[in-house]
Amino acid sequence: MKYRKMGSLNWEVSALGLGCMRLPPRSINRLRAETKKSVKVICYAIDNGINYLDSAWVYHLGDSEKVLGQALRDGYREKVKIATKLPTFLVRNPKDFDYHL
């Protein structure tokens, strides 16, 4: 894996990141199976050098972040940086920022 300096931060980011927008794939009848597959995909990516992950609450209304949380157990969280996005369309007052992030 190739790495690059991330802006002015003292951190090297993998040239490839993993976007979790489609994890887990939507399947009402097979959600548990798809969750297990998604966790395997995320762990495989990290095991092979990817250290930058992207998620957001709006990806499957929080399911993507839940799967990511499951995948980052057992020491994986310390190996990565995570980018997320604020669903600004849900922000109505200042308290909403902390709630949604």
Annotate the secondary structure layout.
Layout: E1 3-5, E2 12-14, E3 18-19, H1 31-47, E4 52-54, H2 63-71, E5 81-83, H3 94-100
Helix pairs in contact: 1-2
Instruction: Calculate Rg over CA atoms.
Output: 15 Å
Q: How do the strands line up in the largest sheet?
A: 3-4-5
- What is the distance, rounded to the nearest whole angstrom, between the alpha carbons of the first and last residues? 30 Å
CATH class: Alpha Beta
**CATH-assigned fold name:** TIM Barrel
Q: Bin the strand percentage.
A: 5-15%
Number of strand segments: 5
The number of domains = 1
What does this structure look like?
It is a single chain. This protein has 101 residues and is an alpha/beta fold. It has a single domain (3-100), classed as Alpha-Beta Barrel (TIM Barrel). 33% of the residues lie in helices and 14% in strands. It contains 3 helices and 5 strands. It has helices at 31-47, 63-71, 94-100, and strands at residues 3-5, 12-14, 18-19, 52-54, 81-83. Strands 3-4-5 form a 3-stranded parallel β-sheet, with no helix packed on it. Strands 1-2 form a two-stranded antiparallel sheet. The longest helix has 17 residues, at 31-47. The termini are far apart.
Summarize the structure.
By secondary structure, this protein is α/β, with parallel strands linked by helices. It has helices spanning 31-47, 63-71, 94-100, and strands spanning 3-5, 12-14, 18-19, 52-54, 81-83.
